[in-house]
Structures are given as C-alpha cells and as structure tokens.
Amino acid sequence: MRWALDNLGLLGQLTIAHARLAIVPVAVALLLALPLGALAHRVPPLRGTLLGLAGLLYTIPSLALFVLLPPMLGIPYLSDLNVIIALTLYALALLVRTVTEALESVPPDAVASARAIGYNGTSIFLAVQLPLAGPVLLAGLRVATVSTVSMVTVGALIGVSSLGSLFTDGLQRRIVPEVLTGVVLTALLALLLDVLLQLAGRVLMPWLRAERAVATA
Amino acid sequence: MIEFEGVTKRYSSASGAAVDDFSLVVPRGTTTVLVGSSGCGKTTLLRMVNRMVDPTRGRVLLDGEDVAGRDPVALRRSVGYVMQNSGLLPHRTAAQNVAVVPRLAGRDRAAARSRSLELLELVGLDPELADRYPAQLSGGQQQRVGVARGLAAEGDVLLMDEPFGAVDPVVRGELQHELLRIQRELSRTILFITHDVEEAFLLGEEVVILSRGGHVEQRGTPADVLAAPANEFVAAFVGAHRRDRRLRVDERDGVRLVVDGRDRPLGVLTDEAP
Question: Do the Cβ atoms of A39 and A49 come closer than 8 Å?
C-alpha cells in the first residue's frame, strides 16, 4: 500500500497506457469482426473456414506474435503499434465467432417480418439483426475485453509500458508490493471496463429489462 | 385489386409444384380467404403478392400492374402484412413497431408517431400500452399491434397470414370481430389465409378452398360453399355432414326454435331483419 501511495503518478500513467492498449484493439477488432461475422453468418460454406482460421489465430502464443509481427510489418519492437496489432488479432479471433453466433441467435421471425414490411438488406442488418444480436454480442465483447486487458501485460516483456511493467520491474528489483499493485490494478481495470460495458448494454438495450421482468413475473 | 394469373411455384426442379396453375381475383375493398390444411400452398400464394416469393410461372397483378416489375422493397412498404405470432420487432415498443412503416415510407418521426397512435386506437389497444415492449403485452394485444402495423401501409392491400392462429379461442373471436368492424370502416382489399373453416366463413366474402399444390377445390361465398359443396373433399373439409351444421326448426308453443343435429337448441327463428 505504501509503495503504491509513493508512486501514484507512475501508476496513473501506466493505468492510462494500459487502458489504451486494451480498448483500441477491442474496438478495432469489433469493427473488423462485424463484417466478417456477418459474412460467416450469411454464407454458410464460409462459416467453418472463417471460424476455423479465427480459432487457429488464437492458438499462436502472444509472446511469439509480439516478436514475429515487427519484422513482418516493418514496425519497431518497442512500439505500441506492435502490441495493438497483436492484441487486435486475438480479440478478432474471439469476436468473429461471437458476431457469427450473435447473429445466429436472432429470432428468424423478427428478420422475416422486417423483410415483409419493407426493410432492405442493410437496414435489416443495422436496425434489426444487430440490436437483437446485442445480448450475445455483449457477452462476447466482455470476455474479449477482460482477456485483452490481461494480455496487455505480456507486452511488458518486450518493453511496451503498461501495468505489466510493474510485474517485470517488481520482479527484477524484488519489490513484492509493486508486483501485487500491478495484479490488483490490472484486475480493477478489467472490472471497470466490464462494468462500463454492462452499463452501456443496459442503456442501449432497454427492451431486455422489460423481457426479464416478464420472464420472472 | 389482386389478380393471380396461372401462377405456378416450384421450389426445386425435383419436387412437385407447391402451387400449380392458380388463378384468382380479389376485388378491391373485399376480403377473400384462402383456406386449406398445411402444405396446400396458401402461404406461398400470399407471399407472391409482396414478392417474398416469386412465381416460377404466371403473374401476380396489383391494380393491373405486374408485381414482377416492381422493386420488392418499395412494393413491401406499400402492402400491409400481418403474420402469425404478430411478427413484432421485440426491441421496439408497440408504437414504434407501427411507426416503422410510415418511417420506412419516408415520413418524419412526429408524423409517424401520431399515425401509429391513431392506428393503435383504431385496433382497440389501450393507449397506456403504446410504449410497452411486445414481451410486456398479451398475445391478443400483440396481435392487435400486428394488425395496426399492417394497416399502416399506405397501399390498400392487406395480406394476413393466419394472424389469429396462435391466440386462445376467446381472444381469437374478439380479434375476428374487431377485424370485421375495421374492414367496414376502411374497406381494404384483404387476402387472408387460415386453416380454420369457421374463421374463413366468418371473415371472407369469398372463400377459396385449397387442397395440395394450391389446387382450388371450390370458391364462392360461404353460403354457396355450405349450400352446395363441390365435392366430397369440400364437404368433409367444411364439415357439411357434421351434426352441428345440420340445423332444423322445432316449433314449441308457437316459437320456432333452431336446433342442431343433436337436438341442441341454438336460437330462435324470427322474421325481423338484423
């Protein structure tokens, strides 16, 4: 506790850096996963291939990816971009499956009725399928966010600053409170982002509360 | 006016025709009911009107114009559609579900909302329920919203795909009479499908009895069909031989009672016009 209070400035900086390294990849991955998941959903023959590739991508060890990406992409090892790209790939691997399954969870009746009253393809996707896929999408997004927050710490091994730096630094200098502070703050950050996502879900999907209230009544 | 001209639909070349050489005219402002068991092609026929299904052969005309030449999305926006289980969007309130139709037709939010509330009132939905989500409404209330949404289309045609099939008999009766009242007010051109003969006789000015492959066994007013079933299939389907359909008059103390084939009294015969 004492160690943490003496280093508040550093902890603040690292937390912000960490949050950025986690949020950007998840956001970019979501944007990429939406069209890919929609494709897998709409073209059944592609479903297996796309989800298979996504699963395979997730099996690459993160440290290996951090080391392999810079020479492949021509970026420096020590750049945030390296970590951001690698983590985007992992989040994408999770979210392509999430988006596909979320779209599959949409009641076919709702889609058929939207079509019957004159929604076109794009508006069915944006105004009907996407919101109704919301609950499954949100669940997957929460998993991807929490797992990305924890994977950011691995970046510290190649020297990209985050709360993970507290592990490497604390280990080298044998400062146990530093390592513990890193663990606690990483967990708190994951928790905070998770709560924010849940709140966003509640605001964006007000009908779910109505449905739940009816189900429990 | 809806016209089917020699319409055939095959879903694949190997299978038989879902609908084979079907023709029908639904005059403007009237209700025609297609009635038949599942597999008779009635849903396929209904969906050809708004191009949810395109015929393999033949034409469907709306007010004389071949629907094949129309943009499907624009066509669907102008044709009302009510389906079984209401087909409401679960993430939109009752009022929003109806307002979607004028919104898609290009009306602004306020105009769509007021049109929606007007239609919900017309179908007899308590205004307090307008801002509830479908899950918070009973089956009958959801179906009222579904009918209001069907009526929101600006064209005069209303397609109804077994709209009252999933609600309990009491509510179904209410909804059927509500539809008759609305139809007296609005005179839409309604094509209604059901497997329930009683419903067909109640709602249809003309009924078309279908067997497999969209084959027309008989068409006519309910009275025509009941008075002279064209064949055994129709007689069995409408229950012409059923004891509760064979009514006779039984005079008691000068009062003419109408009784059914099991001697159950159904009412009193009078000379007064209704």
Answer: no
Any residues with CB less than 8 A from the CB of B20 and at least 6 apart, and which? Answer: B8, B213, B214, B215
Burial class of residue B218 (count of CB atoms within 10 Å of its CB; 0-12, 13-18, 19+):
buried
CATH, residue A80: 1.10.3720.10
CA distances (Å), A121 to each of A125, B73, B102, B149, in order?
Answer: 6, 9, 18, 20
Residues B30 and B16 occupy one common structural domain: yes
A131: nearest CA partner in chain B: B91
Structural domain range at position B62: 2-246
Nearest to A117 among B76, B85, B135 (CB): B76
**Distance, in angstroms, between A73 CA and closest chain B CA?**
43
Cα B183 from Cα B203, distance rounded (Å) = 10
Residues of B in Cβ contact (< 8 Å) with A128: 89
Question: B64: phi > 0 → left, psi -120 to 50 → alpha, else beta; which?
Answer: left
pLDDT(B207) > 90: yes
Shortest Cα distance, chain A CAs vs residue B75, angstroms: 8
B202 interface with A at CB cutoff 8 Å: no
Task: Give dist(CA B147, CA B246) in Å, integer.
Answer: 34
CA B75/CA B60 separation, integer angstroms: 13
Are B26 and B60 spatial neighbours (Cβ–Cβ below 8 Å)?
no
ipTM field: 0.84
Task: Specify whether B239 is located in the same domain as B267.
Answer: no
- Whether residue B30 is found in the same domain as residue B98: yes
The pTM score is: 0.86
Q: How far is CA A188 from the centre of its chain?
A: 16
Question: pLDDT-based confidence at B274, cuts 50/70/90?
Answer: low
Domain range for A60: 2-216
Alpha-carbon gap, residue A203 to B174, rounded angstroms: 37
Structural domain total, chain B? 2
Domains in chain A: how many in total? Answer: 1
Cβ of residue B133 closer than 8 Å to a chain A Cβ: yes
Is it the case that residue B13 has pLDDT exceeding 80? Answer: no
